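Before relying on records like the one below, remember that each one covers exactly one chain. Contacts with other chains, cofactors or solvent are not represented anywhere in the record.
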Amino acid sequence: MPRTVLPAKQRRRMIMDVAYELFTTKGYQNTTIEDILRGADIAKGTLYHHFRSKEQVLEGIIDRTVQQITERARLAAASASEPRRGAVGRHRQRTSGQRTRRHGRAVPRPLGIQSLT
């Protein structure tokens, strides 16, 4: 079988993708290095060129996941400063200025209902 040459970053990502699938289906303890080698279709030397151990593969997966979560949180925080666009935002937009008093506090009036007073 011919050897497939990939850039180091891409190879490392591929190994972590295969390991992630195996860890989530078989469990970390039940997944062997041999399982990862077969799934990634690589030689043992290739895996050990990128990772010292199965534990380091797991650490790489965790680091990648933390980076993804951090990026999503950053994007969510950035979009929170923008005007709301969901159902809540539309409701607030439609009901702004349409307030009535009920039990001493202002509450939004449903659309389409005219004031009875």
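Residues 54-80 form the longest helix (27 residues).
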